[in-house]
C-alpha cells in the first residue's frame, strides 16, 4: 500500500514477491521443525502422559500446513490492500466456516478424532488460497506473482513495517496460551 500510494507499482510487486517468498521459506522451515520435533513441542506446551499422543498428532498435522497458513495470511493482506477487501473478507469467512464444518464432519462422521480436527484446520487456509487466487487469475489489481525473490534488503523493510502486526498476532497466541494454562 505504501508503494501504491506513491504510484510505484513495480516496487509494490517486488515487495509482494519478496514477502511471499519469505513466507514460503519460513513456512517450510516451521513445517520441518514441526514434523521432526512435534513431541518436544507438545511437552513444552504442557502435554502430559495422557495427552502427549493426541497433542503430538495435532501439532504434527497442523504444522505440516504452515506454508499454507503463512501464504494465505500474506495473500489475504495483500488482496485487501490491492483494492479487493471484500474478496479478502470472503476468503477469511469461508475458510473459517469450512474449518468448523470440516471439524464436525471429520470428527463426527469419519471418526478421525484429533487428526480430523487438525486436518480441518490445516485445510482451511487452502480454501482461503483458492478464493483469493481469483484476484490474481483475473488480474483484478496491480499485484502479480513474478517469481521467488529473496532480497534481504527488501525483506528487512517489510519486516520493519510488519513488526507491530507480528507483535499483535503473537500476543493473541500468548494470551490464549495463558488462558489455557489458567483453565488447566
Structural overview:
The chain is mainly alpha-helical and 184 residues long. The chain is 82% helix and 0% strand. The protein contains seven helices and no strands. Helix 2 (9-44) packs antiparallel against helix 4, helix 3 runs parallel beside helix 6 and helix 5 runs antiparallel to helix 6 (113-137). The longest helix is centred in the first third of the chain and has 36 residues, at 9-44. The model has no long low-confidence stretch (mean pLDDT 86).
Quick rundown:
The chain is mainly α and 184 residues long.
Pick out its properties.
single chain; 184 residues; 82% helix
Largest sheet: none
Q: What share of residues are in beta strands? A: under 5%
Q: Indicate the overall shape.
A: globular
Number of strands: 0
Q: Low-confidence parts lasting 5 or more residues at pLDDT below 50?
A: none
Fraction of helical residues: over 70%
Please write the string of helix (H) and strand (E) elements. Answer: HHHHHHH
Task: Determine the number of helices (DSSP H or I, runs of at least 4 residues).
Answer: 7
Mean pLDDT: 86
C-alpha Rg, in Å?
18 Å
Summing up helix and strand content along with how strands pair, one would put the structural category as mainly alpha
- First-last Cα distance: 43 Å
For this entry, what is the oligomeric state of its chains?
A: single chain
List the helices and strands and how they pair.
Elements: H1 2-5, H2 9-44, H3 52-64, H4 66-81, H5 85-109, H6 113-137, H7 152-183
